[in-house]
Design goal:
The complex is a heterodimer. Chain A is an alpha+beta fold. Chain A has 5 helices and 9 strands. Chain A has a 7-stranded mixed β-sheet, covered by helices on one side. The chains are: A alpha+beta, B alpha/beta. The interface between A and B is medium-sized, with 32 and 25 residues.
Chain lengths: 271, 161
């Protein structure tokens, strides 16, 4: 797939003095592999650290309970029961904590799977508007009162797509947009048709992406959000999903905000 | 130290699961009085209002609100004698070590950590803090005696000269 196909996305720099310019970019995927691994190592070390420590503390607690049982005769029964109760409470809490940690590890592995997984089976004709709407419902809690969402849906036919995966793209872009807006702002979602293509643009009135970062935003592992906030996989997953749809993703960014535009063919003909 | 038997330890990590793990371990193995937070900003607010001292502070490095180095620098302003320990994930180790050298932290611990190491680092940090405190008391004592001697000398001079 990749070898006979030049990945196409365009950086449109609105801040340039000579007006908007478009450059064709090649993703530098290998260079960012190290970044990706470093980010993942950090992501994994948090739940791993918790599990490692929990296991040790649970073992210590069990040893202590054993000691209390051995010295049963020489101890005040009420005091012993209290000590045991406290240790059992610790074990219970840590088991719950380990469960949370393993769920975290699961979701990290899940996002990696999504990243490498190309699923040909789930393609069908679908209307994109319900997908955008349901994704909006999911991210609503992030928007609260501070962000107004403006929908400008055009007359768009059903497209051959993998609806769940497209929703994942909308989700990532909407979350990014909400994070780019520091206080109050607007996210504008526009859909349109252009010949045999349809387009979805998601525009925010946020801080914008610094020019030096634009060539790297689709690289796996690249993030400016800080570890723990972003994995650096979001946009590279978007890129990959759009590529799977034989579409393209474009970005324009300046002082007044960022716009991502996804362009998809209505019919996904075999290449 | 306000309570010699129960040193007060401050712990901040934005990950609830890390706080729970360390809190439980220290509860089982030590009798430290632990003040645990998932928000460095809330921790700083509480510290401002705090009357008794903090004997040692442990902080995560990468947190959304502020990084651990800045947080521990703020802790130092309020409690200058408390040793400060940084918890770091692997990815930020290089940055963390640079920062540690710049601001002079007591120790750093890597995630995933070993509980025995953690306990030892805390124990040694508390011991160091106790020694520093004793030293400070002795210095004050010496200064006080020195001032008394000066006063006596002045008095003698005034009377006899």
């Amino acid at each position: 797939m990749l070898q006979d196909h030049t990945p196409a996305f365009y950086m449109i720099d609105l801040t340039s003095r000579n007006g908007p310019t478009a450059r064709r970019m090649q993703p530098e995927k290998m260079a960012s592999l190290g970044l990706l691994i470093a980010g993942l190592a950090h992501e994994i070390n948090t739940p791993l650290g918790a599990i490692h420590s929990n296991n040790d503390t649970i073992a210590r607690s069990i040893t202590r309970i054993g000691q209390l049982l051995d010295r049963e005769a020489s101890l005040d029964p009420a005091e012993r029961r209290m000590a045991e109760g406290r240790l059992i409470e610790v074990i219970r809490e840590l088991c719950q904590n380990t469960l949370v940690a393993t769920e975290r590890l699961n979701s990290i592995v899940g996002s990696l799977k999504t990243f490498i997984h190309r699923d040909e089976a789930g393609f069908r004709k679908a209307d994109i508007h319900p997908g955008i709407d349901s994704t909006l419902t999911i991210v609503q809690h992030r928007l609260t009162d501070r962000i107004r969402v403006e929908k400008r849906y055009g007359s768009v036919p059903a497209v051959e797509c993998h609806p769940d995966r497209l929703n994942q793209v909308f989700m990532n872009l909407l979350v990014n947009a909400s994070q780019a807006i520091a206080d109050e702002g607007v996210i504008t979602i526009e859909t349109f048709r252009k010949g045999s293509l349809i387009g979805v643009s998601i525009a925010d009135t946020g801080v914008g992406i610094p020019e030096e970062n634009l060539p790297r935003i689709f690289d796996p592992g690249f993030t400016t959000k800080g570890v723990g906030v972003g994995t650096g996989l979001g946009l590279s997953i978007c890129y990959q999903i759009v590529e799977e749809h034989r579409g393209r993703i474009e970005v324009s960014s300046g002082a007044s905000g960022t716009t991502f535009t996804i362009v998809l063919p209505i019919a996904r003909r075999a290449r | 130290m306000t309570d010699l038997a129960r040193p007060a330890i401050l712990l901040v990590d934005d990950e609830e699961m890390i706080v729970t793990s360390i809190k439980s371990f220290l509860a089982v193995e030590t009798d430290y009085h632990l003040l645990a937070y998932t928000s460095p900003l809330t921790a700083l607010q509480d510290l401002e209002a705090r009357i008794t001292t903090i004997d040692l502070a442990i902080s995560d490095y990468l947190m959304p609100e502020m990084d651990g180095i800045s947080f521990l620098a703020d802790v130092k302003r309020k409690f200058p004698l408390a040793p400060r320990i940084l918890l770091t994930g692997y990815a930020d180790k290089g940055n963390a070590i640079q920062a540690i050298n710049r601001v002079g932290l007591y120790q750093y611990i890597e995630k995933p950590w070993n509980n025995d190491d953690l306990r030892l680092v805390i124990h040694n940090g508390l011991e160091k803090a106790a020694l520093l405190r004793q030293l400070e008391e002795k210095v004050h004592e010496v200064e006080r005696v020195h001032k008394e001697l000066n006063d006596v000398q002045r008095e003698i001079l005034r009377v006899f000269v």
